[in-house]
Design a protein that fits this description.
The chain has helices at residues 16-25, 46-56, 71-76, 78-98, 136-156, 182-196, 216-228, 246-257, 281-285, 294-310, and strands spanning 8-11, 33-34, 60-63, 103-107, 159-165, 168-169, 200-204, 210-211, 214-215, 235-238, 244-245, 262-266, 275-276. The chain is built from ten helices and 13 strands. It is of the alpha/beta class. The structure holds NADP nicotinamide-adenine-dinucleotide phosphate.
Length: 317
């Protein structure tokens, strides 16, 4: 018997998280998945969203759509980061309530915790102190979506709740040369250094900051697990609670790629916060733990990267 209530609408199915959830749901018997491209359904358009819910009547909604971007984009377009995300969330959460959705899973992120959150970060750190200014608009929109789910649950008794993933990596990642996250950025730079026959690669900063990484397929598995719980937490961290220095990570990536040159650091570049780690006690207490070890995950991710790179379809926007 399948406990995921079908049909399932995956909002943002073409993105990194959404496509991982599609892959994971494909393994579930008797679950019908509904997807729409942005061209067919703009989630910012309330009327379109209502028509879609009226016609398709999903029982479960996994909300993996969002306007996302790096520090520069967030700094230049805070109006769009706040309004686009608020509009998508408001339209989809309201329509879900109005059309009797049984389960709504909203995607938050550990990047919406306060700038100086106590480490390792507990769920109770949300809104406990000021936000990180570089992505404040995005974080405000995400916090509003997460809180709206909590309020709907509290006021109307519906099972609307959220997951807070840590830094993700895996298939579908963004390899933009300047705007990508640390792990895809390292994969691209070290791969290109190997092709060019470079004697060394330089990583930004001292290499000492500690960061946590979760394979996106583990996240997809955790999302399904959460959707099967009768009484899930309103929001719950999803991570490994293991961290690695940036230098260790670069060394691991170089080993995977077969780059034998030196890895140099550049202490004149900013390091960012020294440590960012999530506390995952709450999720583990519900019976879920990640399965993909970092070394294996990087090997698989590099194979995906090579397929995309060699076919000229590397995602880099
Ligand atoms: N990636 C990470 O490391 C990470 C970590 C923690 C949390 N998360 C969270 O996970 C969620 C998904 O992130 P992601 O990395 O999967 O992002 P992504 O790869 O950029 O995917 C976002 C998806 O949303 C769609 N979308 C955006 N605006 C839309 C609109 N108006 N109407 C319809 N679809 C729209 C995009 O469609 P287009 O392709 O047409 O733009 C894309 O398919 C976000 O909430 C993010 O905060 C991600």
């Amino acid at each position: 018997m399948n406990r995921i209530q079908s049909p399932v609408f995956i909002a943002g199915h073409g993105g990194m998280v959404g496509s991982a959830v599609c892959r994971r749901l494909a393994k579930e018997p008797n679950v019908r998945v509904i997807t729409r491209t942005r061209q067919d359904l703009d989630l910012c358009d309330e009327a379109q969203v209502n028509r879609f819910f009226e016609e398709e009547k999903p029982a479960t909604v996994i909300f993996a759509a969002a306007k996302v971007g790096g520090i520069l984009a967030n700094k230049m377009y805070p109006v769009e980061f706040l309004t686009d995300n608020l509009r998508q969330e408001l339209a989809t959460i309201h329509a879900s309530y109005q059309h009797g959705v049984k389960r709504f899973l909203f995607l938050g992120s550990t990047c919406i915790y306060p700038r100086m959150a106590k480490q390792p970060i507990l769920e109770s750190e949300l809104l406990a102190s000021p936000l990180e200014p570089t992505n404040e608009a995005y974080a405000l929109a995400k916090i509003a979506g997460l809180k709206l789910c909590q309020y709907f649950r509290q006021q109307y008794g519906v099972l609307f709740h959220s997951a807070m993933p840590t830094n993700l990596y895996g298939p579908g990642d963004n390899y933009h040369p300047d705007h990508s996250h640390v792990l895809p950025g390292l994969i691209r730079r070290i791969h290109e250094a190997k092709l060019a026959g470079d004697a060394s690669v330089t990583i930004w900063g001292t290499g000492t900051p500690l960061r946590e990484f979760l394979h996106v397929d583990d996240l997809a598995d955790a999302i399904l697990h959460l959707c099967e719980l009768d009484n899930p937490p309103d929001w719950v961290n999803v991570g490994t609670s293991l961290d690695h220095s940036i230098l260790t990570l670069a060394t691991l990536v170089a080993k995977t790629i077969g780059f034998t040159g030196a890895i140099l650091t550049d202490p004149t570049r900013p390091d960012g916060t020294p440590r960012k780690l999530t506390d995952t006690t709450l999720l583990r207490s519900t019976g879920w733990a990640p399965k993909i070890e970092l070394e294996q995950g990087i090997r698989d991710t590099y194979q995906c990267f090579l397929r995309e790179f060699d076919s000229g379809h590397l995602r880099s926007k």
